[in-house]
């Protein structure tokens, strides 16, 4: 019997297929795609644009102002949903497509799902070179969309309408696979978008995608249990995989039963509430003194759902116990075996539950656990001191963080990305529920903040989403303030204006460099700009004001709670001050030769620090 078919264009088939993909969260069946972000141009308006219009009731389309920003919003949505739901983004060819490449790299580094649907040149090549086409003199198959290849988990170019059938099947496998998860790019030739094909009706049957939870291998589990049982100074590092697995309850049960202290990466912060006595908070370059002191001494480190990047490991100079063993509990084998770790390839929740069963009755030495809790108390005192209110003309980032914490509490979602704020917030923010701390620090993308927060707000409309960013990030990408107003999605944005790239200026000084090209006053200029950020934000539709002090900031935040639309609060801050408590060395290469005595001194110190790195680990 011949299969029933329906004649559709390739673009119509794509959008109909996306609308039939489902997930299940807490027993509720939901569309797995929250919608499609779209900026139309000649490369997608007639094809996928028409198809999205036909499907608008089941697959909503959202208009943005910048292709990179709309993809950030899609990524923020997926992160806020712990990868259980995600979005697509479509652009025209040429600059519209390439604008999304930075966001694709962000998603790739952070292992976050997003479906990218850039238009492409004509498959039939008759109009070549079409408007915005970049020609390769030696390869007729290349277009600018090939830039997506290294930053996509799966890439395909659709040159015939029937190719969308296997391409979408593979796309969904990648987007929903906990180990392979990341961006998928389906490059859509613009003529093929409009071509029709007789698609099998079964291609459009509803499907519910479940989270795969692999359990650990018996031999790997036994080795991990043996290592932990022999530990005198065990430590858990909680990464983003704890949150994506929904494993906070399993982590809590595991560490409470065994008395093992926990520290958190940027991606893993909020795995445990900050108030938990075993949570030592941030680890590494931006870590607390409580966490880093333990990391230096630990003899067994259980790294759960983390990539162990250099900010976590202090450029591999943090873990100083030469007899240490790392156990890598990770769903991705590539991460599980890093740095000679004992791999434990498994879902975080399943792996923690089985480790807990294997360790039943075993506890870490009481003096080690007590040592940890004592260190936490000392850190809390240091943190309270730097976040306390100040009457300084230019308060520090830490003092602004303290004001936001006091005014807004831990029940909000705090979101940030690049510059000095990730370091300060990682140490100092007191996170509450899992996912309430939303950091993009894998790619540290300036400009993610506002757009990513828009996506987070779409995922959690009932939550107060608070954005903290600097003037540099704001100037790079602020257009989605207008989108948030248009969509009625309120954000509270605190803009810390230190008149330049203060974080990198401090790094420049720390490596012996002269103040050069980072702060506005140290860059080439005829006239120093005096930007009225509040007026600019108001022109985009936000409620906006500038405050003169920490006390005024707290009052403004109280007012912002009652506002019905996006609110931007601007405060001037000191570009030279950062929190000295906590932290760790980070490997930033200093020139071996310089005419500056400051650089030569910094090089000497750098060479001393290099000796702490565990080469070969």
TrEMBL record:
Record bears the keyword Hydrolase: yes
Entry EC number(s): 3.7.1.22
Domain Thiamine pyrophosphate enzyme N-terminal TPP-binding residues, every copy: 48-132
Pfam family, one: TPP_enzyme_N
Keywords attached to this entry: Hydrolase, Thiamine pyrophosphate
DNA damage keyword on record: no
Thiamine pyrophosphate enzyme TPP-binding domain segment(s): 419-571
PROSITE patterns: TPP_ENZYMES
CDD domains with a match to the protein in the record: TPP_IolD, TPP_PYR_POX_like
Gene Ontology MF terms in the entry: 3D-(3,5/4)-trihydroxycyclohexane-1,2-dione hydrolase activity
Residues covered by the Thiamine pyrophosphate enzyme central domain: 221-355
Protein family membership: Belongs to the TPP enzyme family.
NCBIfam families: myo_inos_iolD (TIGR04377)
Entry protein name: 3D-(3,5/4)-trihydroxycyclohexane-1,2-dione acylhydrolase (Decyclizing)
């Amino acid at each position: 019997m011949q299969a029933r078919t329906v004649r559709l264009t390739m673009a119509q088939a794509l959008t109909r297929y996306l609308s039939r993909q489902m997930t299940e969260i807490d027993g509720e069946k939901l569309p797995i795609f929250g919608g499609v972000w779209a900026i139309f141009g000649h490369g997608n308006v007639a094809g996928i644009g028409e198809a999205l219009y036909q499907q608008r009731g089941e697959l909503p389309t959202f208009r943005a102002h910048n292709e990179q920003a709309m993809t950030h919003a899609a990524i923020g949505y997926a992160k806020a949903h712990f990868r259980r739901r995600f979005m697509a983004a479509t652009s025209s060819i040429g600059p519209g497509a390439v604008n999304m490449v930075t966001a694709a790299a962000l998603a790739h580094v952070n292992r976050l799902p997003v479906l990218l649907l850039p238009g492409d040149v004509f498959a039939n090549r008759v109009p070549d070179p079409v408007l915005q086409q970049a020609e390769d003199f030696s390869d007729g198959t290349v277009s600018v969309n090939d830039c997506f290849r290294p930053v996509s988990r799966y890439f395909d170019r659709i040159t015939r309408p029937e190719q969308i059938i296997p391409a979408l099947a593979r796309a969904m496998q990648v987007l929903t696979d906990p180990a392979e998860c990341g961006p998928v790019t389906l490059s859509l030739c613009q003529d093929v978008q409009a071509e029709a094909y007789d698609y099998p009706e079964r291609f459009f049957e509803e499907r519910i995608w479940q989270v795969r939870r692999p359990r650990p291998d018996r031999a790997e589990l036994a080795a991990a249990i043996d290592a932990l049982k022999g530990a005198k100074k065990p430590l858990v590092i909680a990464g983003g995989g704890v949150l994506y697995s929904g494993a906070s309850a399993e982590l809590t049960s595991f560490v409470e039963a065994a008395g093992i202290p926990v520290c958190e990466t940027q991606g893993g912060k909020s795995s445990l509430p900050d108030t938990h006595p075993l949570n030592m908070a941030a680890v590494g370059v931006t870590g607390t003194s409580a966490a880093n002191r333990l990391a230096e001494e630990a003899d067994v480190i259980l790294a759960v759902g983390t990539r162990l990047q250099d900010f976590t490991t202090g450029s591999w100079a943090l873990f100083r116990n030469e007899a240490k063993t790392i156990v890598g509990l990770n769903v991705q084998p590539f991460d599980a075996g890093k740095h000679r770790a004992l791999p434990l390839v498994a879902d975080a929740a399943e792996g923690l539950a089985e480790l807990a069963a294997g360790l039943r009755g075993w506890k870490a030495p009481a003096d080690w656990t007590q040592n940890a809790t004592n260190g936490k108390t000392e850190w809390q005192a240091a943190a309270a001191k730097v976040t306390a209110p100040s009457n300084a003309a230019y308060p520090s980032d830490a003092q602004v963080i303290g004001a936001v914490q006091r005014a807004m509490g831990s029940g909000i979602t705090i979101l940030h990305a690049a510059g000095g704020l990730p370091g300060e917030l990682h140490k100092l923010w007191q996170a509450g529920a899992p996912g309430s701390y939303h950091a993009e620090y894998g790619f540290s993308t300036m400009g993610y903040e506002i757009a990513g927060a828009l996506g987070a707000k779409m995922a959690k409309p009932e939550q107060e989403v608070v954005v903290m960013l600097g003037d540099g990030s704001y100037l790079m990408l602020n257009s989605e303030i207008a989108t948030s107003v248009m969509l009625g999605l309120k954000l509270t944005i605190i803009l810390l204006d230190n008149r330049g790239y203060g974080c990198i200026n401090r790094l420049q000084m720390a490596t012996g460099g002269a103040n050069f090209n980072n702060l506005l006053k140290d860059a080439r200029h005829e006239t120093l700009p005096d930007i009225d950020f509040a007026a600019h934000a108001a022109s985009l539709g936000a409620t906006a004001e500038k405050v003169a002090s920490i006390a005024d900031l707290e009052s403004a935040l109280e007012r912002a709670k009652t506002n019905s639309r996006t609110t931007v609060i601007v405060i001037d801050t000191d570009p030279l001050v950062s929190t000295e408590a906590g932290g760790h060395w980070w490997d930033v290469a200093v020139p071996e030769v310089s005419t500056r005595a400051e650089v030569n001194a910094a090089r000497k110190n750098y060479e001393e620090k290099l000796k702490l790195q565990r080469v070969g680990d």
